[in-house]
Amino acid sequence: MKDKTQIFRKLFLSTFQLSACTFGGGFVIIPLMRKKFVEKLHWIEEQEMMDLTAIAQSSPGAIAVNAAILIGYHVAGIPGALLTVLGTVLPPLIIISVISLFYQAFRDNVIVNMAMMGMTAGVAAVICDVVLTMGMTICRQKRILPLVVLLTSFIAVRFLQINIILIILLCGIVGAADALYQMRKTKADEKGDAIK
User: Fold this and answer.
1) pTM for this prediction
2) What are the C-alpha distances in Å from 43 to residues 34, 75, 144, 177, 191?
3) In whole angstroms, what is the distance from residue 93 CA to residue 165 CA?
């Protein structure tokens, strides 16, 4: 029981700290979650984190909250999901509540505006880190289909302005078909090995 309490506490505090120190939206928190839960705590494998990120991104709602729910549930079930949601939502709620009290002063303050502009540059760098990290993980698989899906999706969004919902649905269908193919191939290989 003590071990579970420590896990719950660490889940809540980890997501609370990450959320409190993250500026720039959900994509910024993903590499921080990866560093915390994959590299430091070793609670999640690299591929699982990629899968959880894909699910979080394609689900309705904020990606940071979706990712927190999935990680919390993966590590500690429903109580873990509830704690990680609370840990992720509380810091912005507290910060926004404080800012709303002093909105006029914050809005017109030159130093605050300069700090926000500096944070924008930092956010761009962190998002580039996410893209490179996830892209390298896909490249390491040494499979052509994920690379084709990655490049086609980028071209469809960036140059053809195709609706992102349509792209997500099509990628989901391609991913499901590929997963079924891989499962059948694995079963066929296992049957072949059993016959030998």
Assistant:
1) 0.61
2) 10, 7, 29, 29, 33
3) 28
24: enclosing H helix or E strand: none
The owner of tokens 């120190």 is 21
User: Which tokens belong to 191?
Assistant: 């049957």
pLDDT, one tens digit per residue, over 21-60 is 877 666 778 888 888 898 898 899 888 888 888 888 777 7
Sign of CA dihedral 96, 97, 99, 103: positive
- The three-point CA angle 140-145-148 to 5° equals 95
Rounded CA-CA distance 97/103 in Å is 10
pLDDT (tens digit, 9 = 90+) per residue, 61-89?
Answer: 788 888 889 999 999 999 999 999 999 99
Give the SS3 label for residue 148. Answer: helix
C-alpha distance across the termini of the chain, in Å: 48
